[in-house]
């Protein structure tokens, strides 16, 4: 039986859109990361998709700004990212730990 996840914090619709688009970009960057195992075709496909996802991320931030949501509430957004497995997903974007040296 899987442990029950904590509920998502209360987010505006625009904040939720920002989180979703950000994680999509992170997932694709993780697939493109040359320090991660994989093949060039998979990385190429992820890089091609990244363009559209980056535009969607920009649009989400633009919408927030136009609505007067000028501040990112980092603590709340970080909680939402953790609930949505953001720590594991963003770890694929970084360099893996050194081995053997």
Structure description:
This protein has helices spanning 13-32, 40-66, 74-83, 86-91. The protein is mainly alpha-helical and 101 residues long. The protein has one domain (13-91). It is globular, with a radius of gyration of 16 Å. The model has no long low-confidence stretch (mean pLDDT 92).
Summarize the structure.
By secondary structure, the protein is mainly alpha-helical.
Number of domains: 1
Assembly classification: single chain
| Percentage beta strand | under 5%
What would you report as the Rg, rounded to the nearest angstrom? 16 Å
Query: Could you tell me the number of beta strands?
Result: 0
Structural class: mainly alpha
Helix content: 55-70%
Mean pLDDT score, rounded?
Answer: 92
- Main sheet overview: none
Provide the succession of SSEs. HHHH
Beginning-to-end CA distance, first to last residue: 40 Å
Features:
101 residues, mainly alpha, 4 helices, 62% helix, globular
Furnish the topology, listing elements before pairings:
Elements: H1 13-32, H2 40-66, H3 74-83, H4 86-91
Helix pairs in contact: 1-2
């Amino acid at each position: 039986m899987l442990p029950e996840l904590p509920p998502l914090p209360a987010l505006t619709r625009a904040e939720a859109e920002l989180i979703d688009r950000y994680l999509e970009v992170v997932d694709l960057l993780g697939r493109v990361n040359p320090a991660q195992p994989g093949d060039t075709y998979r990385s190429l496909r992820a890089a091609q998709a990244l363009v559209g996802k980056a535009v969607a991320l920009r649009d989400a931030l633009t919408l927030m700004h136009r609505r007067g949501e000028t501040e990112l509430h980092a603590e709340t957004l970080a909680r939402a990212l953790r609930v949505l497995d953001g720590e594991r997903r963003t770890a694929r974007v970084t360099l893996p730990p050194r081995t053997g040296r």
